[in-house]
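Fig. S4 source data, part A: sequence.
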Amino acid sequence: MKNIIAYMGLVFFFISCQPSLPDKYREVAGQPVIFPDYKEVTIPVNIAPLNFTMDSGMQDGYVHFQNASYSLQVKAKRGQFSIPASSWKKLLESSQGSFFEVIVMNGKMNG
């Protein structure tokens, strides 16, 4: 019983560590400029996380990955999106034979 409670505590801890997405945002036409450019690529299921930066002076922002059964949010740190390896692996494994959507939300602009 103690193991189940400890496990549930860890689950709630990891869920609470997910960054919350902004309540309000404005959709813009076009695709963001990212480096390296990973747009419209096929990603092998065993590849390391595809971390990236925005080429727009962005310092704050979020990226939201979602497929039919799993979603992942990552908050930018100093303009860099660093995707946790375990979450990335889960996203790729649950996306095999299908696709996932990526939504980038820009925060404050630098300058």
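Fig. S4 source data, part B ends here. The helical segments are 2-17, 85-94.
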